[in-house]
Amino acid sequence: MTVLALDIGGTELKGAVVAADGTVVRTVRRPTRPVRPARPARPTCGAGTALDAALDCATELAELARRAGLRPRAAGVAAPGLVDEAAGTVVRAVNLDWHDVPIRDRLAEHLGLPIAFGHDVRAGGLAEARLGAGRGSHSFVFVPVGTGIAAAVLTGGRAMTGARGIAGELGHLVVRPGGERCACGGRGCLETVASAAAIARRHARLTGMTTSGAEDVHRRAVDGEAQAGQVWAEAVEALADGLAATVALLDPERIVIGGGLARAGDHLLAPLAAALTERLAFRTAPRLVAAELGRRAGCLGAALLAQDLLVGDPVAEGLLTEDPLAEDPPAEGLLATGRAAEALPPGGAP
């Protein structure tokens, strides 16, 4: 059962054609907001531009499947922001300038296929649950820490959506009451201290220097810069506070840390695990591990959603993750035996 998969990001679209045996046959990467002529014939802001790009990417995936002699049976799409998975709608996605966009219906009409739709973080968590760092865990929490912070709660390979479809807003858990104002309108949210954006911003405020981002702050901390070390330690402490509340409520077997900050490896995980253990008192701390799938997780999760839509049961084996979507080496044990017959043609987003 060949499926198409599409992961819609704020800056980039990632797509894949996945064959019946789970092999990723073709992949595509495109900017979410394509460069348009200076005076376009139609509006290029808001939902139109990003939605058109998503539809164009879906068309390209369908054509790549046809050229490979494959007939897609369904497509899966993962989108950011506040989503209504039951209605197939992106309620609000600030980075896309989307409000109440019926992405599932638009893709179904465009492709003539049944469409599975999910939140990008939950799709990434689903992929980590079945193919990555969550394998073997009945319950775990996937926490990508990047520009923002979110969470996906997985039990038995299924993601919890909540009554209104917005479960997992870990970044807006208040960990520093009365603290910095958050984009959500609250004060002292976890995102204002521990996200990659917050780490860079807090370091700049403390030192008066501009850095290239949280990874630069991390490097400075490792090199012994006191201010960078302070900002990094404060981020770890705040993240431990948020995870301690998560553990108290959910008692997961494992917590999988993803996103750009996870690339710090043990410089993040070791102090975070120690700080979390301190906060749990009599409770046993869950295992804390780095995500394995990197930037591929959302697209692979979208493929799994599409396969689940067709078969009604989880499809967990065989997805080939050694592909042009990968920034990191593929995790051991995730390679299918099949390989694409020809390389993806050039022209994708860097």
What can be said about this structure in brief?
The protein has 350 residues and is an alpha/beta fold.
Order of helices and strands: EEEHEEEEHEHEEEHHHHEHEH
Low-confidence region ranges = 37-46, 313-318, 320-324, 326-350
Mean of pLDDT: 85
Structural class: alpha/beta
Task: Give your account of this protein's structure.
By secondary structure, the protein is an alpha/beta fold. The chain has two domains: 3-119 and 299-311, ATPase, nucleotide binding domain (Nucleotidyltransferase, domain 5, 2-Layer Sandwich); 133-290, Nucleotidyltransferase, domain 5. Helices cover 35% and strands 19% of the residues. It has helices spanning 47-67, 103-111, 120-131, 191-194, 196-207, 214-222, 226-250, 266-279, 297-311, and strands at 3-8, 12-18, 24-31, 74-79, 82-84, 89-93, 98-101, 115-119, 139-144, 152-155, 158-159, 254-258, 287-290. Strands 3-2-1-4-8 form a five-stranded mixed β-sheet, sandwiched between helices. A five-stranded mixed β-sheet has the order 11-10-9-12-13, covered by helices on one side. α1 runs parallel beside α2, α5 packs across α6 (214-222) and α7 (226-250) packs across α8. Mean pLDDT is 85; it is low at 37-46, 313-318, 320-324 and 326-350.
What labels describe this entry?
about 350 residues, alpha/beta, Nucleotidyltransferase, domain 5, 2 domains, 5-stranded mixed beta sheet, about 35% helix, disordered C terminus
Question: What is this structure's SSE topology?
Answer:
Blueprint: E1 3-8, E2 12-18, E3 24-31, H1 47-67, E4 74-79, E5 82-84, E6 89-93, E7 98-101, H2 103-111, E8 115-119, H3 120-131, E9 139-144, E10 152-155, E11 158-159, H4 191-194, H5 196-207, H6 214-222, H7 226-250, E12 254-258, H8 266-279, E13 287-290, H9 297-311
Parallel strand pairs: 1-4, 4-8, 9-12, 12-13
Antiparallel strand pairs: 1-2, 2-3, 5-6, 6-7, 9-10, 10-11
Helix pairs in contact: 1-2, 3-9, 5-6, 5-7, 6-7, 7-8
